[in-house]
Prior knowledge:
12% strand; 4 strands; alpha+beta; 5 helices; two-stranded parallel ribbon; 136 residues
Amino acid sequence: MLPKYRGCTVVEWALYNGDPLGVTAHLMDEGIDTGPIVAQATFDVADCPDYAAVRVKVYQAGFALAATAAADLLAGRARPVPQGPGRYWKPIEPEKMVVVQAWFARRASDAAFIADRMAAGATADQITADLFTTKP
Length: 136
């Protein structure tokens, strides 16, 4: 959430870093995700079975917050607050994304599988394909 996480893959970075997830409605300015904050909401992803479910939850929370924030702005109830210091997070690397996806793995063996594949020199794309391909 802003202001700590600014950029296009902040959900992934928050998961990677073990931080809480949430969404922020903010006004636009000349910076990247630096405008005054209108509203924020956090949510738990413990019930999400996989990364795709997390993204769905993020989008749903974002849409709901955007509707509430827009209504509050139009009604004069919103009081945008300037952001404190924050950081722009570059797009997450594929190697780190493998870790994020593995967080949702249902079997303990997946963690060992990833470690073995990485030690063998497999690329992040190869590991991801192998990990999430249905096998007989």
